Amino acid sequence: MRRVCLTLPTHRACTATIAAVAGEAAYGAREFGVEVHLLILDSSAPADLAAHRAAVAALPPAPGVVVHHLDEDRQRAFLREVLASARPDDADRLLDLMLPAGVSYGACTNRAFLLAEALGCASVHRRDSDSRYQLLDGEPVFPIHHELTALGRPAADVAAEVTRGRLDPGCADRTVVLAGASFIGALSVDVAELRALDPEAYHEVVGLSVPAGHPEIWRRNLIDEAFRGAGTTPFTTDTTTLTLVSPTRVDMCNVALCREVYGRVPLPPATDTIGTDYFLLHLVRNARLPGVLHNRHIVNYHTEERRSDAGFLAYQLRFAKYLLATAHLDTVYAGLAATGDGLLDAAGRVRPDAVAALVRESTLIDPAGNEARLDVLGRRYRSLGGRYATAAALFADRRDRLLAEAASGMTDFARLVDAWGSLTAHAKGTAVNHPPRPRTAHAPAVTP
Hints:
The chain is an alpha/beta fold. It has one domain (3-435). It is built from 18 helices and 15 strands. The strands form three sheets. A ten-stranded mixed sheet has the order 8-11-13-9-12-4-1-2-3-15, sandwiched between helices. Strands 5-14-10 form a three-stranded mixed sheet, with no helix packed on it. The longest helix has 31 residues, at 309-339. The chain is globular. The model is unreliable at 434-444 (pLDDT under 50).
């Protein structure tokens, strides 16, 4: 039986989301006859972790669904077993990259990738704790429907079942490795207040994320569309497109990838940095690997914690680090685009060595560009006063560290790419705690 991994990484209270994602897992198993491994990777504080354990224990039984709820201790134990088996030279550093002390959107997803390998899954389907499903006639609209329909199949076969086909015929014999959609609701990056306070400041700050060289009219369009997802129009009927999926049309709370991609290249493990976990979407597009873009968008919302002063400051730091990482990542993305089909080997598989080489080259960019980015960010935030000025002071205090981390983060990423093939190979023989059993009609199968 085909196995897939539906993963929910979390570091915050999300009992309602756990129940909702479990419903999606049950739908996938019921409608597609697959075994769905619901993988909850929990980095929450003790009280929230306890509430999540209770929520998992209360899940109703669902045939074909296996639930794994792993706190950080169990995740670390799994990683140590993989590293002990792989025996890399820098095992301690790799462990830090896979399970860092800070928040890392890439690292938590990389852990899901390795665990999916251990569970024998063909694909990983990622959701987020601060999102929920749309409803149609009172029923949730599950993205896994399109993900399981398309993933792992030849593009030529999928072409007959989608609403639109926009794929180069030369890619028709390639496998569909990505399926995704976006979100509706609140902006994915918390800059709506900035836009309301000072539209010119918003334009200049968000413009720092746009690669240099675009004509001004394109820049304005990219800035206007940034972080808005699919807008606010609710779902009414399915629309699917077979294409080379643009990363700007997909959100990481609503995406699925085949192991042919994540089994060969990981995500950047940058800490406290938004946006870097979109790397594989760029790789898939530039390697001309087919995907399906659908419109079962998830509803995005902002938690109350992000509205607090401490939450605001933490998020603005992640945003600043994203703007600095962009300078390096844009260099890699340009290299990926220029390499094109050369990113694949003779068997049509992604070449990790080609990716690692481009990542290493990106560490050599002139740091003056990022120094200028921090100058703009500090100037604009100071002009707004209040907690924006507090953020600007934080950026100034950490200036040298922020600049250094932007470059060292890419060095760490290249190191992880080099080791990734060995890690995924040895993950296959590693138990995920006690091997879980499929859920029956009497009790849920849970790895607590």
